[in-house]
Amino acid sequence: DDDPALFGEKVTLKQQKLTVHYLCLLTSCGVYQRGKENEGILGFLVDDIRQEVRRSSHLTCVSCKKKGACVGCNVRSCRQMVHFPCGRNLSFISQFTEPFPSYCKNHAPSQSLSVDPNISLPQSCSVCLDSLDPVLSYSVLKCPSCHASWFHRDCVQRQAFSAGLFFFKCTLCNNKDRFQQEMLRMGIYIPERDASWELESDAYSDLLEVYKHCDSPSCLCEHGRSHSSIRGWFEVVRCCLCGSRGTHRKCSGLTLKTTDWACGDCTQATDGKGAAAVCEVRAPPRLFALVSQHGCCVVFFRPTLSDKSGSPEELLLCLGPQLHPGVAQVEVDGDQALSAGLDLVRRADFDATHLLSVNIVQDANAARQYFLKLLHQQIQDSVVFEGPCGSKNLALDAQALRDDLYFDVGCLLALCLVYGGPCLGFFSPGLYQCLFNYPPNCPLTLQTAFDLLPALLQISEAKSLEELRGVLEESWEFLQLAGCSRPVSSLEDNQNLVEDLVSFTMITRMQLPLQRFREGLQTLGVFKQVQLHPSVFYNKFCEAAVPLTAQTLGQLFSVHFSKQEAKLNREMVVVTFWRHFLLECEVGRCSVSLQDVLRFSTGAEELPAAGLLPAPSVSFLHHPESSADEGLFPQSRPESRSLHLPITSTYKAFKSCMEQAISHHVHLLPA
Description:
By secondary structure, the chain is an alpha/beta fold. Strands 12-11-14-13 form a 4-stranded mixed sheet. It is elongated and about 125 Å long.
């Protein structure tokens, strides 16, 4: 076999009729490098090699049962002899450091797990990314520093052969010294040379070539498109943006002084000066529509994205998608809202601006709200987030990265905000700062790193230099992983160290999850809107929803009075009854709550982040002269957010009919 990564360089001496692998020479028990590098085969003299061939010709390999076994177990009491390639099949480990010992499977060194059993182990090789069984063995190794990088033996051996001594390091934590020592102990050969990509002749010569070709539709140069004079009309001017297109000055009508020409492709994407052009989409006013399972479609107009400040509800209203003919159907099986949402956004034909149709066992108006509320709760309980309830950070999960779950969850949260879901309210201040830089340009605080809070607290609260050094010594693996393994000369160094560790925990190691999560939040322009107004949206993302109050609920409804003076006078009285009724609901003097009133009148269990659309309204039910009993109870139309209050002469009668109607409605609702 001629596989330099696994067996070393294969060298042939034609005059001596001798062919050997370099690693077979290193691991043979009876041959030593007694010559110089240019003598024999890389310092192994030919006579010594022939003598080893004669010696091993009497030894039988325990694997293939053939003669010529030259590699033996280094334990004196063990008599196992193998060929070097056969030893790989029998899990022999050869250490490529002086004196190059080899060990059989029974005496070979091994690795220990030494990680928290609650931590999920990786399921793929960090080199080839293929799946692996996370059980340490001869064929599966791990990084001793981060414990998160697991790989196949053959994969890390090929990586070592390609990277060489100067570039071979862990693919995840970039640790070099400790990683190389452990790999040498476990039998990985690391050649003492530069990386293979640095040794290729003229490896970067393409970078020195200058594009010299005229791409004009009609070239006027008589010497052809590839001709470029030193100066003048037929000098090839390259695109100042991409550099991969060119033109003669004469062919594109340029002046002799023109040097900043831009090609057609770049001109379409930019303004010709290197800045991205702002493409204004000229479309009709935006429409936003949601369709329930029963075909109840609520459509209303919305403005385009605005950079003017306002309330969070007003800013979210600017993000309503433009109405499209298509419909995005969501099938919810039981309470599996998150699975249904992920299935939606992972469809090849998913379009966030299509109508959202929720198919779930609920009434027409409540189906959408129930789905969004359930989705909101299941997202914050998913593997993507960690930390205490109400103040969660992004969690680093390898499986979630492979499944691109961070992008999908960000997309679903954006849909929740725009399509009338509840306020998020569970982001930690640190996560909000990492995403939107608010408060701006402030270092992350210690309280943001919940998963490493005990270790960081010990470093921060150290009372003496000796105590600080002791804590650092106990946490040396974490410090090395974070790139903060440095000597401390005074107690004041701990604060800078804590800031660096928090930055590593929240930003450095989370760069890819944060990037994909941001890209998901860009759905329907949510990320851009929040980025423009981070202070306005802070409460929506980081603080729990404010309890519903009588004042808040009363301000939601616009009152539609009659134009007849007689009716108007009676309606003014009922409005005071209505406000007094809400106050009594707030303090518990009624048999119904403010939430019951909200559900009865609008169909919503809580106020959505984007507000209620259409805006709730109040009108009045007057007694017809022909029937004094008709219209004594309030009526609601949740699909249009309208509430009709009965006209009564006393507050007691008004309260009684309101309580009876709302209680009856609440008891009929499904659990």
